[in-house]
Amino acid sequence: EKGGYDHFMLKEIYEQSRSIRDCLRGRIYPEKGKVQLGGIKEYADKLKNVDRIIIVACGTSWHAGLVGEYLIEEYARVSVEVEYASEFRYRNPIISERDIVIAISQSGETADTMAALELAKEKGATIFGICNVVGASIPRITHAGVYTHAGPEIGVASTKAFTAQVTVLTLIGFYIAQLRGTLTKSKLIAYLTELDQIPELVEQTLKCNEEVKKIAAAFKDASNCLFLGRGSSFPVALEGALKLKEISYIHAEGYPAAEMKHGPIALIDAELPVVFIATKNSSYEKVISNIQEVKARGGRVLAIVTEGDTEVRNMADYSIEIPATDDAFVPLLATIPLQLLSYHIAVMRNCNVDQPRNLAKSVTVE
Ligand code: F6R
């Protein structure tokens, strides 16, 4: 059932080209510049006029929500707030009938996420779900939703569900952009044409596996690790850190790269691996200065770079290439080497990759 892989986690990492393709199927028409989301189309008017979207989730799903915030604000120009479900539900949040509250949950059963949604519904908001498990509790209480269609995820650490959630949020961003006219038809055509290529680019990205494994051997004895990125690569850094800590038990933190000098920089020494997402996108030059700051303090740098990059490659101790793509889709590719890095480190440390200690696949109690 592991399809020849040693662990479900590795199998699920490798499934991502397929799972993203399934998630896109029937939803994008690149040549027409059109996104179609059957699950929420009844709410098209609401989406067109919405002033604020609130995303509630926990853990990895919350990280996907943060990527969604960048995408929806950038392309659809709607204000987005992303909240930990557990905090949102207990702080008497301000919600009105004008709001759309979106819950993201792989299992569709997470107690805090469910309760946050119930609260929002009570206050009159329109509630949507982005879930993977069909017919779970969350999709049953929502007004509408979009399934991720990643297929069953067995490994406790979420991998293909995360990239599918990000894919759905990307689709929602472009869908609202289409409704509101915040992107021209030709822009939409260009974005959707590139999005259609992502499963192929994911396939290419997965070829980094052997390279990542070598780097994992160099990092496996670390006791701490820092993950840094800017823009939508910041939540990718958070996700990279969460993956590493949950399956390898190495303490890791994700930060926006520019925040480093407000504290974490004090940690940097020759022992501390610092992983940068340093692809050739809008924040490239800024990230380069952050890498220089780490190198100047003797830190060990692993950089995720765009294919063909030489500048960062020369600066970093280790680098992994991913294919070039638009800013909008970098999270879908940059996440993959980080998943593989955690996986290999955990295997080398003899950890129970699919069933890490103290963790459950679905958290049905608060
Ligand atoms: C991390 C992980 C957890 C879940 C979180 C939310 O790899 O799996 O952080 O993301 O418990 O679960 P769902 O998405 O089922 O609500």
TrEMBL record:
Enzyme Commission no: 2.6.1.16
Enzymatic reactions: D-fructose 6-phosphate + L-glutamine = D-glucosamine 6-phosphate + L-glutamate
Key word Cytoplasm present: yes
Record domain SIS: where: 43-182, 215-356
Key words, A-Z: Aminotransferase, Cytoplasm, Glutamine amidotransferase, Repeat, Transferase
Function description: Catalyzes the first step in hexosamine metabolism, converting fructose-6P into glucosamine-6P using glutamine as a nitrogen source.
Official protein name in the record: Glutamine--fructose-6-phosphate aminotransferase [isomerizing]
